[in-house]
Write a structure and sequence with these properties.
Oligomer: single chain
Radius of gyration: 23 Å
Largest sheet: 8 strands, mixed
Number of strands: 12
Structural class: alpha/beta
Number of helices: 17
Length: about 400
């Protein structure tokens, strides 16, 4: 593919990404893969170059662009103006530029989201948002049921210990983790350092009964099992059958035997958890959220989020947090986690629960992790304790 043909391909993919953002369609990564799955003539260098261009454009534009063409023009105008000469250059190039045609404006996030980040971070909001749009690193969690970090640092080429976590190592981006013997043998799992810190906040101990309420495919479940030394009772629940079905294979590879996946019926979770009411030493609720702390991995998520969708997410978080609280025994711990930096999804949810439940108290101040300050995904972590 010529540079001009790559630009035209980027426009087509960006059109699909913009439409998916408006309609709730597939993620940008998936759309890139679909595009090239039916264009086998494109070589690996072409695919990589187009993908990098698409994501550079997405990261550079805060508001949802009018079209893929407007998005690329706006990006090139601001960052690589020489690329504008590709338009109308013949062959498979995009059509020539015309006077007054739309072009997207650079930005960090939609204006309404930037207002919320300014409420959270004040004058540092722009720096925090810019860090959210960098490239995410590749982090692994060492599975202490099978290995220790010092051992693996010498066995995995390029592995680097992260000082603020007990089990995290960082690799160079682009490593195919599933080809590593350490991954195949269950010695490591892919997990961002921030997610590892969130799981560690539960302070899980051997012999406890712990509920992972929104377990998904089990990333934090595996970390909890390691903290419990594979002793006790660990119930991992979710309403998404597809995600939960991926857990058993991960448990087997990691050597975890105490985790019990349990599929819940959305909206009717309380009945399925009746046996755990007031019985858990700790409950982790990693609630569905905006994902604003993970924009490095999914930068188009800024385009998907709307005030109405955020309101729905907050309502669901409040419902799940109340459900989680009902399963905590007196003296037990409740940990609320969201991979979001928006205040209404983090500290405001915890404050609402504490106002509604006099038998709960804050166990520690909010733990806020950000790419800018902590070099990991963004998380808000609230630890609470049932006192009566």
């Amino acid at each position: 593919m010529t540079p001009a043909a790559r630009a035209a391909a980027a426009i087509e993919i960006l059109d699909a990404v913009i439409e998916a953002a408006r309609s709730g369609g597939a993620a940008a990564d998936t759309l890139v893969q679909r595009y090239f799955s039916v264009r086998r003539y494109a070589g690996s260098k072409d695919r990589r170059a187009v993908r990098e261009l698409v994501f550079a454009v997405i990261r550079a534009l805060g508001e949802v662009p009018e079209s893929g063409r407007a998005a690329l023009i706006g990006y090139l105008r601001a960052h690589a103006p020489e690329g504008l000469t590709l338009f109308g250059s013949g062959g498979h190039a995009p059509a020539a530029l015309s006077a007054g045609e739309p072009e997207a404006q650079p930005g960090l996030a939609p204006d309404w989201l930037m207002a919320r980040l300014r409420a959270r971070f004040g004058a540092a909001a722009a720096a925090q948002a810019e860090a959210l749009l960098g490239r995410a690193p590749l982090d692994l969690r060492v599975n202490r049921l099978k290995a220790d970090r010092d051992q693996l640092l010498g066995e995995i080429e390029g592995a680097e210990a992260l000082p603020h976590t007990g089990d995290a190592v960082r690799l160079a981006s682009g490593v195919n983790v599933e080809t590593l013997p350490a991954w195949q043998d269950g010695l490591v799992e892919v997990q961002d350092a921030g997610s590892q810190i969130a799981a560690r906040a539960v302070a899980a101990r051997p012999g406890e009964t712990i509920l992972d309420l929104c377990a998904g495919a089990g990333g934090k479940t595996l970390a909890l099992a390691a903290d419990m030394r594979n002793q006790g009772r660990l119930i991992a629940t979710d309403t998404d059958r597809g995600r939960l079905s991926a857990m058993p294979a991960r448990l087997t590879r990691a050597g975890v035997t105490i985790a019990m996946p349990r599929l819940l019926d959305g909206g009717r979770e309380a009945a399925a958890l009746a046996d755990l009411e007031g019985a858990c030493d700790a409950v982790l609720v990693d609630a569905p959220c905006s994902g604003s702390g993970t924009w490095r991995r999914n930068p188009e998520a800024r385009w998907r989020l709307t005030p109405a969708r955020l309101e729905r997410l907050c309502a669901e978080q409040a419902r799940l947090l109340a459900l989680a609280a009902s399963c905590v025994r007196p003296g037990g711990r409740l940990v609320h986690v969201v991979c979001s930096l928006l205040p209404e999804e983090g500290p405001e949810q915890a404050a609402r629960l504490l106002a509604a439940r006099a038998d709960f108290a804050a166990d520690s101040p909010e733990m806020l992790l950000t790419p800018h300050d902590d070099d990991c995904d963004g998380f808000s972590i609230a630890r609470m304790r049932r006192i009566g």
